[in-house]
């Protein structure tokens, strides 16, 4: 893990100390990512080898490229997680995806305002929208 990632994780963790907030994020963030990928999959960019590349895959490439600068092993694990969520997202129609997106953000709000009594970390540092996803994964595999 690079010093930059350790610094991001430490800063992010400072906004996520309570068990209730961590639990809300453990469910809310994957739901938001699934819903986002489901919605972005509705925006086709081009077709390659019989597969339609969408805005969802473009966003995955951007995020994973960033994660590779921070920790290659976590980036590969995140790519695998994104692949599963991307495939699942293609099966979710837009209406339910919007509902899931709202539920995910409600969980974030409950975590911060009910349990943590603070605002989300990304209000202060927009990069935390990307770091939060990696932090959840890293906690799940014992690397955070």
Structure description:
The structure is a single chain. With 144 residues, this protein is mainly α. It has one domain. Helices cover 70% and strands 6% of the residues. The chain is built from six helices and two strands. The chain has helices at 3-13, 19-40, 55-68, 72-89, 94-116, 128-140; strands at residues 44-48, 51-54. A two-stranded antiparallel ribbon has the order 1-2. A hairpin with a 2-residue loop joins strand 1 and strand 2 (51-54). Helix 1 crosses helix 6 and helix 3 runs antiparallel to helix 4. It is globular. The model has no long low-confidence stretch (mean pLDDT 94).
Topology:
Elements: H1 3-13, H2 19-40, E1 44-48, E2 51-54, H3 55-68, H4 72-89, H5 94-116, H6 128-140
Which spans of ≥5 residues are poorly predicted at pLDDT below 50?
A: none
* Gyration radius from CA atoms, angstroms: 15 Å
What does the main sheet amount to?
2 strands, antiparallel
What order do the SSEs take from the amino end to the carboxyl end, as H and E?
HHEEHHHH
Tell me the overall shape. Answer: globular
> What would the average pLDDT be, to the nearest integer?
94
Number of helices: 6
> What is the number of E strands?
2
* Percent helix: over 70%
Task: Give the domain tally.
Answer: 1
Structural class: mainly alpha
How much strand?
Answer: 5-15%
Strand order of the largest sheet: 1-2
Give the N-terminus to C-terminus distance in angstroms.
10 Å
């Amino acid at each position: 893990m690079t010093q930059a990632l350790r610094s991001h994780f430490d800063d992010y963790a400072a906004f996520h100390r309570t068990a209730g907030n961590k639990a809300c994020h453990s469910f809310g963030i994957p739901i938001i990512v699934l819903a986002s990928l489901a919605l972005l999959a509705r925006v086709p960019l081009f077709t390659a080898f019989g597969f339609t590349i969408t805005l969802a895959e473009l966003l995955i490439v951007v995020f994973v490229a960033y994660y590779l600068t921070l920790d290659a092993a976590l980036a590969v694990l995140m790519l695998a997680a994104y692949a599963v969520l991307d495939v699942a997202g293609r099966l979710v129609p837009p209406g339910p995806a919007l509902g899931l997106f709202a539920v995910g953000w409600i969980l974030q709000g409950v975590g911060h305002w009910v349990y943590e009594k603070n605002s989300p970390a990304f209000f202060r540092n927009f990069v935390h929208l990307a770091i939060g996803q990696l932090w959840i994964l890293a906690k799940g595999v014992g690397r955070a």
